[in-house]
Each structure stands twice: as structure tokens, then as C-alpha cells.
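Q: What would this complex look like in 3D?
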Amino acid sequence: VTEAFASLQPVQDVGTAHRLRLIRKLESIAKISPEERQAVLALPLRVREYGDAADIVREGESPPDSCLLLEGFLCRYKMSAGGRRQILSFHIPGDIPDLQSLFLDVMDHSLGTLAPSRVAFIPHVTIHAMLRDFPNLAAVFWRETLIDAAIFREWLTSAGRRTAHQRVAHVLCEVYVRLRAVGLHDGAGFNMPATQAELSDALGLSAVHVNRVLQDLRRSGLIRSHGKRIEIVDWPRLQQAGAFDPTYLHLHQGRPDV
Amino acid sequence: VTEAFASLQPVQDVGTAHRLRLIRKLESIAKISPEERQAVLALPLRVREYGDAADIVREGESPPDSCLLLEGFLCRYKMSAGGRRQILSFHIPGDIPDLQSLFLDVMDHSLGTLAPSRVAFIPHVTIHAMLRDFPNLAAVFWRETLIDAAIFREWLTSAGRRTAHQRVAHVLCEVYVRLRAVGLHDGAGFNMPATQAELSDALGLSAVHVNRVLQDLRRSGLIRSHGKRIEIVDWPRLQQAGAFDPTYLHLHQGRPDV
DNA sequence: CGCAGATTTGAATGCAATCAACACTGGTGG
DNA sequence: CCACCAGTGTTGATTGCATTCAAATCTGCG
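A: Here is my prediction, written as C-alpha cells for the whole assembly.
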């Protein structure tokens, strides 16, 4: 709602810890050489802070840079005729949610926060230069956008052919696995900043129904939740309830020779 | 059902007309230089014919090549728990439906025919070599996979937040615009090989409901159809009925300087 | 404490699914 | 040439999952 926080001054210095988040992410989907690692760490970052429910890029715009999420929780979304929102993806620290704008100049959807977030902007020209100098990094970034597409396919399958129970269980499994892949989980649980209304916009359900399904999952002993934290009590059964198969996340695979 | 046709001998000679189909497609989304054009035309193609309802690649496999659709109609799909099918995308001649397998070695979905089709296989190693020699072509192919993802986003929005009427109208608009972009439309109409049952698997609806919605669209004077041919009678109203905005197809845009 | 956002609950409604026939169509073989 | 047949399209009746509407808690926070 409020974009007041977004008006803070851009900050120039970013801790190495934040930069390593991107490395960690890239390494979760491909192998990175020391030189490539250096190149990524050398990327110039312009950092901005956003409050809750703030838009970072809007449908129709042509942003000159892509952004890297450092801290917080983002989503991409579209508004459909009738003012209904469809959330297309969730994004965790280390993700580059609008990498596609590198080659698609007009945004066909919006990018916004679901929690107060710290975001780093990287000019397209800089990324292009890096990818030209390090062709293997181009392969890694391309692969990243392909995994992005694979997740859309999975969500489409959920929205089209899975029951409400399956959808809710499935998305919880996905977020947990993705957080775990970059070490941002919390034991058997994780921090889930999205509200039930936001979850419903992601799953194509009503908020009321999401609420009821979550209660079912709790009653059945699959999950537990206090506030924003979700704890997975019975992973095998949750996975089964959501028909969750992590193959589509394409994690931990070697890079093909390019 | 039958895969008998698939066992035909691979053919080596492909008419230039078929090769130009890919050029036409690429030119619908980016600019191609004469040298790049030559490189694409020089790609070695191994052609195979498939019957109706045949699988070309299956979920879980790791194909050594990508395929280019020369003639016919393909779809990508997933089977969800419970044996329900979700069709993820339709593909028309000129498309390379499994380009993502260039960097994602395990298929997370299947690719099959919705009509008798002629398909050309291109080894990944060959494509990689071409992309290395022509970096701008790499940008074009990358862009192609990004548009692929944009279409998934749009379909997800349909499945999640659009009514049955909107979904049906929307997909008809999309197929028409995509066919028209490569000159494969037929005046104000086009050939739609998918059955109503297949349409329903793409839209996340039942076949019965798709049938009723199509009747509504015909009664309302938005479309007409004889057999597999669909004619668009009132484009503005069809577009409005489907809340269709072609931006997400990212057609006819120049290539950014790389 | 008070307020706004979020979650929860209950009741009624509705869109689309399901079930079950029936009609049509194009292709095949007798 | 026609009968057959499987696949496709069409129709009607019923069911049900999820939505909508409305209101009551709960929670965090200034």
C-alpha cells in the first residue's frame, strides 16, 4: 500500500554477505568457476529498500536494469480483468526476479514486495558485458530463466488440475525446498511472509478456502504454524498431499559443457 | 494412441521451405542478420513423422537434441496425480518446443502431437556450436525461451483468475495471433487441430464445459466453426471476451544491442 | 488501549464437474 | 457402396467444491 519506504536514498556499499547470496543461489543450480565467481562478485549494485506491498517494477514499464533480492520476499503478479490478482511466482533472497527484462524490454507483469525488502539493481548493460566476457555464466543465467519457466509450468499444473488441498501443500513444499537449497530455511520450518490472501492469489483460490485448507493440514498433523513461521511436521505426507516432485526445480545439477 | 507412424525412417532432405519456417518464426520476435540466417539454414535436420497423439519426448528423459516442428501441431503436457492431464502449451510450425532441454537435462514434462506432425531434430551440440559462433543468435534463442515463459505466465493467469468464457476466448485469440505472426493463419480463421477435450486439458476445464462455452461464443456471433477450422467473426469482441492483450507474446520487436 | 490488518467461522450461492445418454462425423472394411 | 465403429461433439440432470458474503475474533503494534 505505502511506497514511502521506497524513497530512501540509494546506498552504494553492499556487504559481501549479500553478494554471496547470489553466488549461493547460482551454485544451487550450476557449477561456477573461481573467475566467474569473481565476475559476479564484482557486479555494481545499487541498493534500495522497500516497505511492504510496494511495487518495484510495473507491467508496461521498460526497466534499464534487473534486480537482485538481498533480503525480504517478492512476488511477480498480473492483474486480470475484474481486478483479480494472479501471483505468478514467489522470490527469495538470491533470486533475480526480472532477469527476463534483459531480453524482453516491456514488462508483461509487475514485481512487488510481500514483505519489507532490500533489493539491488544491476544495469542490463553491465550484465550483458559480463555474459559476453564469461559465456559459461551466460549459460548459468539462461539456465536460471529456464528454471523460472519450469516453475511456471508447475504452477500452471497446480492451478489447472490440482485440488485446493494439493495446491496448498504443493506450494509449501516448493517454498521450503527452495529456501533450503540456499540455506535460508530454519530447521524443519521456514518463514513464510505471504498472508493467506496472498497465498490465495498465488494458488487461484479464495482466501477463505485457503484458510480452511491450512486448518485441515494442521489438524492432520502435516504442518504447524505460529505467526508467519511454518513448521513441517510430516514431510513425507505433506509431499504426498501436494503430489510434490522437486524435479522441476532442477537443483544441484552440473553445468553442461558449452 | 498409435505410435506406429513414428517408426518411419528418418529422412535426410528437408525442403528449404521448411527451413524458412524457423527463420520466419525467429524474425517474428527479433531481427536476424544475413549471416545468422545462413547459420540457421545450415543446421543439420533429422526429420521424423509422427501420427496423432504420439509422444515425442517424455517426462524424465534426457534428449540429446531439441526439435523443430515443421508441420502439424504439438503440445507440452504434464500428468498430475490422479491421471489428469494439464496441457502447458500449444506449438505451431516454426516453434522449437523443447529448446529448454539445451540447459535442463531432465525433462520435467512431456511433448506430444495433437495432429499428425513432421518434426526435425537438431543435436544440442550443434546448437551450442552455432550459438557460440553467433552470440546474437544466442540472444534470439534465449529471447525465444523467455517468450515461452511469458506464455506460461499468461496461461497461469487464465487458469487461476479467469472465468471459463474468458479462458476459451483468450486461447483462441492467442493461437490466432501466433499463427498470423508466421503467416500460417487462413484469412480471418485458422486450423485448430485440438479437440474440445484437449482444449479443456489446456484450460483446466472439463470437456463438457468447453463445449458449452464454445456454443455460447458461436451464438453470440464471436466465432464460427466448421470441423477443425475456426473463423473469427468479431475480433474486437472476442478479444474483449478473453481480456486478451498480445503484449505478452512480445512480437515484432527489435533485438537489443548485445 | 485502540486500531488496522489478518485470520477464523458460518451460511448461502454458484460455477463448473460429473454422470449418463445420444447424435454426429469421418474413416475402414466387407 | 454402404454398414459399421470409434472418436468427437452435444445435451440434460445432478452433484459438489470452492466462492461469496457477512460478521466475529485474533494479533501485532503505535
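A: To summarize the key features: Residues 195-197, 207-208, 211-212, 214-215 of chain B lie near DNA strand D (CB under 10 Å from a C1'). The two ends of chain B are 46 Å apart (CA to CA).
Q: Very helpful, thank you.
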